[in-house]
């Protein structure tokens, strides 16, 4: 149950220094890993984008607590080892329901990357309403994502892949990256192995279906 989740009424009421300390000053969160699980992707992204604040949204309390503790340990280790980069101060995990509260945390056009890695494990049994990619949810992602920003999806479930591609491709505000553009994006290789779920799929010799979508410019109003 998620009735106990605290969330800001509006994004400007969110105090990000509680998660990033002084590192939040003058910066806004730009990357969101939705259903981040144990946070493997964020740990890989953190040193690669030291100036960018990134957040994992995770529904399970124990899992989000685990990620928060892991980040704290990495920050301390970075401090003692004299890390000159972000030292994991740019990464945090928030326990929340991304299907309910994204617009409470992020303003219009705030995000530049949203990740959905191995979401919806029970895709087939789920009611449409609770799928992470639905027409209603796409409107929210389009709102918080900046034009030119990217949505990354990865799954081992072919039906889910086809569902996400169909909905995102037919949406007026998203377009799929070409194969060439996908290959040129240095983040794409991280979608395969950086997370715990990705490693599990590899161990089980499962398939992996990545896709990347660009948030288009808003149409000019006539
Ligand atoms: N992305 C991670 C990975 O690749 O290892 C985790 C994948 S796991 C199969 C899906 C995760 O999404 C779970 O940890 C689950 O708790 C989380 N989740 C499901 N629905 C969510 C929601 N509405 N908001 C936030 N997290 C959610």
TrEMBL record:
The protein, known as: tRNA (guanine-N(7)-)-methyltransferase
Enzyme Commission number(s) from the entry: 2.1.1.33
Molecular functions (GO terms): tRNA (guanine(46)-N7)-methyltransferase activity; tRNA binding
The organism of origin for this protein: Mesorhabditis belari
Major enzyme class: transferase
Region described as Disordered: 198-222
Pathway(s) annotated for this protein in UniProt: tRNA modification; N(7)-methylguanine-tRNA biosynthesis
UniProt-annotated catalytic positions: 120
Major subcellular location class: nucleus
Keywords assigned: Methyltransferase, Nucleus, RNA-binding, S-adenosyl-L-methionine, Transferase, tRNA processing, tRNA-binding
Entry GO CC: nucleus; tRNA (m7G46) methyltransferase complex
Catalytic activity: guanosine(46) in tRNA + S-adenosyl-L-methionine = N(7)-methylguanosine(46) in tRNA + S-adenosyl-L-homocysteine
Location(s), subcellular: Nucleus
């Amino acid at each position: 149950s998620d009735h106990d989740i605290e969330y800001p009424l509006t994004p400007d009421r969110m105090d990000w220094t509680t998660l990033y300390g002084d590192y939040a000053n003058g910066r806004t969160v730009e990357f969101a890993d939705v259903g981040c699980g144990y946070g493997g992707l964020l740990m890989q992204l953190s040193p690669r984008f030291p100036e960018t604040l990134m957040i994992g949204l995770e529904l399970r309390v124990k899992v989000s607590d685990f990620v928060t503790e892991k980040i704290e340990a990495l920050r301390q280790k970075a401090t003692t080892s004299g890390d000159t980069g972000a030292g994991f101060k740019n990464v945090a995990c928030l326990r929340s329901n991304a299907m309910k509260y994204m617009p409470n945390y992020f303003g219009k056009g705030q995000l530049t990357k949203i990740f959905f890695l191995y979401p919806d494990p029970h895709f087939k049994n789920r009611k449409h309403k609770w799928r992470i990619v639905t027409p209603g949810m796409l409107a929210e992602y389009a709102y918080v994502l900046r034009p030119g920003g990217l949505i990354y999806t990865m799954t081992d479930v072919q039906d889910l892949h086809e569902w996400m591609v169909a909905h995102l491709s037919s949406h007026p505000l998203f377009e799929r990256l070409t194969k060439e553009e996908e290959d040129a994006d240095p983040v794409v290789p991280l979608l395969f192995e950086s997370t715990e779920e990705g490693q599990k799929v590899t161990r089980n010799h499962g398939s992996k279906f990545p896709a990347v979508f660009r948030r288009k410019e808003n149409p000019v109003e006539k």
